[in-house]
UniProtKB/TrEMBL annotation:
Substrate binds at P143. CDD domains: secretory_peroxidase. This is Peroxidase. Removal of H(2)O(2), oxidation of toxic reductants, biosynthesis and degradation of lignin, suberization, auxin catabolism, response to environmental stresses such as wounding, pathogen attack and oxidative stress. These functions might be dependent on each isozyme/isoform in each plant tissue. Its EC number is 1.11.1.7. It is an enzyme of class 1 (oxidoreductase). GO terms for biological process: defense response to fungus; hydrogen peroxide catabolic process; response to oxidative stress.
Amino acid sequence: MSATLVHGQGTRVGFYATTCPRAESIVSSTVATHFRSNTAIAPALLRMHFHDCFVRGCDASVLIDGSNTEKTAPPNLGLRGYEVIDDAKTQLEAACPGIVSCADILALAARDSVVLTGGRSWLVPTGRRDGRVSLASEATDLPGFRESIDSQKQKFSAKGLNTQDLVVLVGGHTIGTTACQFFSYRLYNFNGTASSDPSINASFLPQLQALCPQNGDGTKRVAFDTGSENRFDASFFANLRNGQGILESDQKLWTDASTRAIVQRFLGITGLAAFNVEFGRSMVKMSNTGVKTGTDGEIRKICSAINS
């Protein structure tokens, strides 16, 4: 665990040890309760934390309701799991009013989601405070599903994350699903041609076309990690090697030489162990991105609204 003991600007492991000793256990039990009735909540919470951190830092700005907030931006329209954060917040306010931030709930819930799906735990530094600004226009900081590796690298670098962090964090797609509308263009008339994306394995293509027929239901969900969508493992990387990445931006991790070498490290049994260690390390780095601590920001009473 010592390898993941990274401290950000004012965050530290055990921040609530005296002010709200049950904070972490309340979050983990809340996530577990929701997970038991809907396993899709785990990848949803992991994704929400990522989407929060990439816009204005990890300050729970993605949770704020409003007409032009981050929630309303196209990349965030598919986010799920707000009710889990609200549930945890309600319980925390009852136990320790005004102490635990929504930003910390998100960071803890992301870790707990990985553990529930079979991944290795890590120590989460806490002490973040909640932001008061949320702008849909800033969601362009999020990497897109068609972006080149160079563009993805630039967006990660802007958050203090390197190329290994990029590969590792995209590896979070080992759990969860996406919608046909985000990759069906790869299956038909790719880049204006009459054929499919050549990086898709030829024997895998009919399987994807059956799941997402041309002009079919664009909202239909398809696993990122074929055959292992509910298990946090390293098969996602094997799928990239085999030309079975679902998103174009994911498959490019294998077709681009600069990221392929990192993907190769996470193949096989030893690769799984390495991935688990590195995932916790990269999550701690990301979760310390642009955090507000001390007297910055606030501790929201309700996660979807700034304090009046």
